[in-house]
Amino acid sequence: MPHHSLSLMGSFAAPKKKFFFILMFTIGLLNAQEKSVSATFENTSLKEAILELERQSGSYFYFLDEWLADKNVTASFIDEPLSSALVKILDESDLNFYITDKKNKVFLLKNTLVYDELPKDFFGKARDSIGREPTATPIGLRPPPVFFNDEVRQKKREQEVIAIGKADRTSSQTSFELSGRAINTESGEPISDLAIRVRGANQVTITDQNGNYKLKLPPGYHVLSASAMGIEDAEREIIIYNDGTLDLYLEEGVEQLKEVVVEADAASNVEDAVTGSEKIESEQSKNIPLVLGERDILQVAKTLPGISSAGEGASGINVRGGKTDQNLILLDDAIIYNPTHFFGIFQALNPFATEGVNIYKGSVPVEFGGRLSSVFDIRTKNGNVEKFSGEGSIGPVTGNLALEIPIEKEKSSLVVGARGAYADWILRSLDDESLNNRNASFFDGIVKYHHRIDDNNEIKATGYYSRDDFSITSDSLYHYSNGLASIRWDHKLNDKTNRVLFVGNSDYRFGIDFDGESNTDFELDYGINETQLKYKLRTLLNDRHTLDYGITSKYYSVNPGSKEPNGPESDVQQIEIDREQAFEAAVFIGDQFKVSDKLLVDVGLRYAFFAALGSGSQRTYSEGQPKNEATVRDTVQYGSGEVIKTYGGPEIRVSGRYFLRPDLSVKASFNNAYQFVHTLSNNTTVSPIDTWKLSDLNIRPQTGYQASLGLYKNFNDNMYELSLEGYFKRMDDVLDFKTGANLFLNRNVETEILQGEGKAYGIEFLLKKKRGKFNGWLGYTYSRSFYKFDSDFSEERINNGEFFPSNFDKPHDVSLISNYRITRRYSISMNFVCQTGRPVTYPIGTFRFNNSDFVFYSDRNKFRIPDYYRLDIGVNIEGNHRKNKLAHSFWTISVYNVLGRNNPYSVFFVTEAGEVKALQSSIFAIPVPSITYNFKF
């Protein structure tokens, strides 16, 4: 029998038709005379199955063909009532049915139910014989039918109302769960910290780091609104019948590039339980005048409280009084050992391929370890999955380009970035005649592949390489390189648990090629390589508990150095230090526990383990004696893979937030850590030729703990952020070196090393204005950093065993970053930085011995170089904002050190005619103008 169109049923068709109320109340039971049917369907199209039941039952079926398209059914039944057969074949679909009393008409319904009588208490609660109200609604009448008022029914819509779930007459639930994922339509990446509100209800949820959300809603009509920084506000109308999913595909906000903000979520600084964290987006450096017009998120980070460097041009970063090797710097989860170019003046990251960085200087997430001071978690962009696009710049020193290439629309993309420079003219302009005829160049490249397999799986793979070549003397060429490769699989196990599997490899190398006039030519090389495996999970146990747990492991392979003759005429003796190997692992678990609406606690435990491995040899020294050639007791040989020494212990992570008011919170945290790798350097600041050393039989791991306490306040609808945070840090077994130590190519470097204790404390103040024509931040830090090396033996003591300031101890540090937008196309920017001069050691006298003059030096770091201050200004000129253009562009014109301040980088002393003279060197002693052209398409 032919089927019939559902055009007659327009009054209660699927949500694609006009909406009005869902008809009547409960379906009656079919009487005993209902026709029976028999059939076996094996992956049969749903339409064919429906037509077969229509033929056997003699009924007329009404439906829309499009409802049955692409649906198959597998079922079997013998002499079953028609209604029972329909329940089986429609079970996996979103279709229900209604059979008329005369049994000859069957209406298929999308999502909905048809009710042919009203419940007894529809017009008011029914009462029993003595006037009591019933305590519950009869199960058969739940869920209640949904009605739309005239305003909802007659509203003109740009988007259709979305039906969620399938109505079920047997359900007794009064609310249903709506879940899904928020996705950026331009990049295809998940949107975290998106606020999803239910209009007319005091109900809101926030998406997690993977863009996932959940809501509990009563059945019926609802309007959802979604908003986040950098995302265009959106609304979705839904009608919910049962549990279901809804993915939100949202556009980027057109105003997002106009803002200078550090936090992506408006109130996260007050609401989170984390202390001492910062978030910087790459776009933020667009309107900040930096040296030679280069965008640089690491230089921006140094303007924030608690983060600094030893001086202008220093490649390392010091966080809260910690040494430069105490920072874990990650690029897409893989470590990068030296993230800078050209003596630290430029970052080694393509700014157009970089999305941003999360900095943890107080509370460190339980998944991270291996460093005492901080974590810099740098993220690269996911490519555009919709269309080919790109961004680049041409400046006085570098050219940058990043392309975003869709591979499979809405699923996968490729980001390819490259930048290069030839910076010889900078050396010629520096305040040092010896550098005038030298050269330097660098380049870096990155490739990022992102593939979203389905709603539950996505893969990210990154490859990165950078290299620097520079010659600061006529006979030596220095070079160093970073390389890494990583792959990450994000998988949603179920509605409560997500997991991540990560594998990565990182490599850092440096070398020197010496070509002198005599027969002393040589090639020198050093390298460190690590391979990491991490498996972590996040489980939302309930509304109060979120668990993070997993395991991570690393394998280190270090070439401590080799020196070979360069050419057959070289008389240099070949030297090769034994390779070092080690294994590091950790297991961790953390719980974010919502104790109450005011109190949020984040607790975690991490157990770290380290094993130094052979092959190689290790010296032992007499107990209670200094380590030198005279106290060597034995030399122990270890075979390949043999354990030389193990270290390890628990690491505690505790932090909490308490709301004093909805926009004012107090936070506190405590954490301790182990660090098993160290840098060896006797320079004042970080050098590209610093080496990394693994803990072993004679060098113990560094350990430390930090406690912090702070107040956080937002004003004027989160436009202003104010924070005041204090910290205290204690460190043990930190490394320093004996005066005149020979560190490189030393087979027994432990005889040159001292291990002592350190302490640091400080107060950090930050005021930010995030929106409006005038925006920026003011940061101030008062901090102190001290070290102490004491021993019973004078050769292992520094400053008589007393605490002394570290090389990077700068008590006062002020940064003012501001941007004023004159019009939509023109803006001006300014930076002002003022810092206390860092400590130095001065000669304080001379003496004569055996007819020779000698210099007598002060205690280490007793004096300071002059204070540092600098003013930068910039003008940003954007092209017109027409939508249909080949490329959108803007110009950046800036002057670095506009006052021409001769800030000393270092102070050194020379002896001329028997007189000691003090000299100073500066990196940029004059104003440095630049103009950069930026484009985006």
TrEMBL record:
Q: What is its main location?
A: membrane
Q: Which Gene3D superfamilies match?
A: 3.55.50.30, Carboxypeptidase-like, regulatory domain, TonB-dependent receptor, beta-barrel domain, TonB-dependent receptor, plug domain
What membrane topology was assigned to this protein in its record? Multi-pass membrane protein
Q: Which Pfam families match?
A: CarbopepD_reg_2, Plug
- Show the InterPro entries listed in the entry: Beta-barrel_TonB_sf (IPR036942), CarboxyPept-like_regulatory (IPR008969), Plug_dom (IPR012910), Plug_dom_sf (IPR037066), TonB-dep_rcpt-like (IPR039426)
Segments forming domain TonB-dependent receptor plug: 293-370
Instruction: List where in the cell it is found.
Output: Cell outer membrane
Q: Which GO terms describe its cellular component?
A: cell outer membrane
| Coiled-coil residue spans | none
User: What GO molecular function annotations does the UniProt record carry, in alphabetical order?
Assistant: siderophore uptake transmembrane transporter activity
Similarity field:
Belongs to the TonB-dependent receptor family.
Q: Please state what the protein is called.
A: TonB-dependent receptor
- State the species of origin: Flagellimonas lutaonensis
